[in-house]
Amino acid sequence: MQITEHIYSTHIKEDQSTFGAMHPGGTQIYFVGKLNEGMVLVDSGEPYRHWTRQILDYHEELGRPRMSAILITHGHGDHIGGLDRLQEAFGCPVRCHPRLAPVLAQRLGEGCVVKLRSKELVWTGHSTSSGRADDTPILTFPRQEGRDDSGSGGVDSTGSNGGSRGVSLRALFTPGHEEDHVCYYLRADNVLFSGDNILGNSSSSVRNLKQYMASLELMAKQRPAIICPGHGQTIHNGEARIRWYLHHRQEREDQVVAALQHGAETVDDAVTAVYSRNLRKNLRGAAARNVGTHLAKLREEGRVTENPATYTVNHD
Questions:
Q1: What is the pLDDT of residues 67-123, one digit of tens each?
Q2: 181 and 279 together in one domain
Q3: N or C: lower Cβ tally within 10 Å for the chain?
Q4: Does residue 36 share a domain with residue 157?
Q5: H or E segment at 228?
Q6: Is residue 149 predicted with pLDDT exceeding 60?
Q7: Which range marks the domain in which residue 87 is found?
Q8: What angle do CA 71, 73, 77 make, to 5 degrees?
Q9: Which domain-ending residue is among 236, 271, 300?
Q10: Residue 165: Cβ within 10 Å count
């Protein structure tokens, strides 16, 4: 399915008994760029062979565009599965957060993985020199003052040696859901690839809430019209959805504090007070982890005290 001028997606429907609770709306794998000038793939999905086959079949359907890189949002298994098969099929490097690079290099080989730099631009095209194709994607460093790096919008889209650069994606380091999380902003289409920081059909699980809130603010600064999440449907009110996420997390934090003030002492107590009594058993663990991240943030800010297994609100 074509989403914008430069974005194509293959939607992988998941077995509801296995993934339905954690991945409402299925998984989206994105091809980004210009069909005749080179593209990048965003994430590689689960390791199942039929997933990889669907991605390769869609690549065939698009006319087998030349792939310049596979961009990884983070190192969870449902985003790097099948990576070895896809990297071998496309013959292109894998780009990821520096924390994840050693892990993937062990799996794929040292020469196959290239670390991203914070706010680096990654171009979707390839360069050519003296009539010889250069398989290395054209990479640029973080923006310098006075430089227009808007991709295809109003600037020369050819490489310095005459090859096409395609369009650019800016790598935004956005920890919170995971330490090695990266979002990618495609300015040419005003689209943000959110990985698991924002989902299309539900809220995301978070490891470090303080980092996550800062990441949401960074994402909001891009003012995206569209968000392409790792799971669920495309979001067409991008900036508003990010603001909703920020509001939702603050609201949840207020609920956790209120629960403690009304007698809750443990994570389990807070989950019972904050979440619906009809919460499915297989989601209670995720709810407990989310409450735990709120308590960790509140503890770090000095707003609650942890006493081995219990929490109390500090009063000024």
A1: 999 999 999 989 999 999 999 999 999 999 999 999 999 999 988 999 999 999 999
A2: no
A3: C
A4: yes
A5: strand 226-229
A6: no
A7: 2-236
A8: 105
A9: 236
A10: 27
